[in-house]
Amino acid sequence: MRILVNGQPREVPDGTELYSIAVEEQKHYDAPIALAVVNGMLRELFHCLTSGDAQEDGIPEVSFITVNDKAGYDAFRRSLSMLFFAAVHEVTGGHAGNVTLHFACGSGFYFTIRGMDRIDADFIGRVKKSMLDMVEKKLLFTKQQVPIETVKKKFHDYGMPDKEKLFRIRLSSFVNIYSLAGYEDYYYGFMLSDTSLLGNFELIPYHEGVVVQMPERGNPDVIPPFITSEKLFAAQIEGEKWAETLGIGTVGELNDQIIAGNTSSMILISEALQEAKISELAEMIADRGNVRFVMIAGPSSSGKTTFSQRLAIQLSAHGLTPHYIGTDNYFINREDMVPGPDGKLDFESINAVDTEQFNADMNDLLAGKTVEIPTFDFITGRRVMSGEKMVLGPTDILVIEGLHSLNDALSSGLPEESKFRVYISALTQLNIDEHNRVPSGDGRLIRRIVRDHRTRGYSASATINQWGSVRKGETENVFPYQDKADAVFNSALPYDLAALKTYVQPLLFQVEKTDPAYFEARRLLKFLDYFIAIPVSGVPMNSILREFVGDGCFRL
């Protein structure tokens, strides 16, 4: 059959496996090939080309993506996770059903094993040896379609009840099951063709579990040092316990609650738990007595603005008089900004903020002076004086929200005891099932797609294509300072994605096959397919979710 490989015509036998073409094409790529693209659709390398892959003109178009591309890197991490499960399965004699993948930790994933309170060096050594043996043997990942009723029984027998629950709402008759070294599992994303690329990892005992530390995207040959945040880890564990209290630790359990008609109570309890946490933070701040500046920062779509206003209300309830200031007010005039090496202005850099003026104004307020707070006119690109005068009385406290609020470079001139720092992020509590996680980044991206469309008229494509730049800014300007926080607030709600599904699905379906955002849009659509949608009519007006879907009670 005739095909086009990266635009070049070739002839291959009908039924040719994409892997064999990838081997020949690898020399044209600067990183290991992970997946193929056939007529604009992602395919695994063990996919065999047939006449069914032909386009209208009868010529399939084939190209490849590497482990440095997002979809390829996701397949790499997913495959390495399955390798870990298969090794535990071998070492424990078939008890991989006791293993739970929780969330990202460091540059890897955090796992626990039910029934093992302490994972010792001997166990880790045996699992690692098993994993490396499988890598050396270049074992194949295989995939087959299995009738859904058979799948439910399989996972019941394997002791994986969360997968059983997940498939209760599946309308299709078959499910794709992956196998590796006799171990079977279900994954909602694509896999590598074999284990040969998975030799770079480290197993690190951590708390009650183990972290499978992995290379970072763009650097597949290097395992980075294990660096994590204890405060963030504690917030993620707390979030999981909240979800368990509500009986919605996985998507299947969430769907069960919705089917049972418990949506209203689930929403109200979720919101009550979050409000209790905000009240707890306000009490911590009030009890310190000398805090005059509450500094709030977090990554995109964490709900910082709504959180800041809800915290202000709780501070008022604890006898304080809060005032909100956005650090955007202290942007340097656009004409005075120095372009970066690429000739572009970096509005996310700390250098875009007039830190000297910010510290001067805040110190004047501490000294009891009257200060006129500026505002930034984004149309003219200049800072202007608003006429708003401020003086701090005995109970006054400033709630300061901005990208750099946790960075000492912003507030270096202020007394340390006058500051209370809060890191906020949407740390998703749900997993799809025991072995498939819901990345927190996906939850934030979906939130942002919905909000960008509602407030700016952006398409899903525009938001997705910009997301890489947003994440880069977070990596440089937010994440390095998260451990500076006195407290971490988790803004995710267990029902978030079920409520956002109705809003985001139509936007994702609008992304065309030729769009660079297409693969990501299709992945998110497939992911959302696991959720039963719920209406937002029962979501309180002060909910963080209202920052994204609208009709909230706060000025945003």
How would you sum up this structure, described in words?
- With 556 residues, this protein is of the alpha/beta class.
- The protein folds into three domains: 2-66, Ubiquitin-like (UB roll), CATH 3.10.20; 71-213, 2-Layer Sandwich (Threonyl-tRNA Synthetase, Chain A, domain 2); 230-549, P-loop containing nucleotide triphosphate hydrolases (Rossmann fold, 3-Layer(aba) Sandwich), CATH 3.40.50.
- It is 38% helix and 20% strand.
- A five-stranded mixed β-sheet has the order 2-1-5-3-4. A five-stranded parallel β-sheet has the order 14-17-13-18-21. The protein has a four-stranded antiparallel β-sheet with strand order 6-7-12-11, with helices on one face.
- Helix 12 packs across helix 13 (460-477), helix 12 (440-456) crosses helix 14 (496-509) and helix 14 (496-509) packs across helix 15.
- The longest helix is centred in the middle third of the chain and has 26 residues, at 263-288.
- The protein is globular and about 80 Å long.
- 41% of the residues are buried.
- The mean pLDDT is 93.
Task: Indicate the mean pLDDT.
Answer: 93
Q: How far do the termini sit from each other?
A: 58 Å
Unreliable stretches covering 5 or more consecutive residues: none
Q: In terms of structural class, how would the helical and strand content be classed?
A: alpha/beta
**Biggest sheet, open or closed, and with what strands and sense?**
5 strands, mixed
**CATH architecture designation of the largest domain:** 3-Layer(aba) Sandwich
Number of domains: 3
CATH topology category name of the largest domain: Rossmann fold
Q: What is the percent of helical residues?
A: 25-40%
CATH superfamily of the largest domain: P-loop containing nucleotide triphosphate hydrolases
Strand order, largest beta sheet: 2-1-5-3-4
* Number of helical elements: 16
General shape: globular
CATH class of the largest domain: Alpha Beta
Radius of gyration: 25 Å
Q: Tell me the total number of β-strands.
A: 21
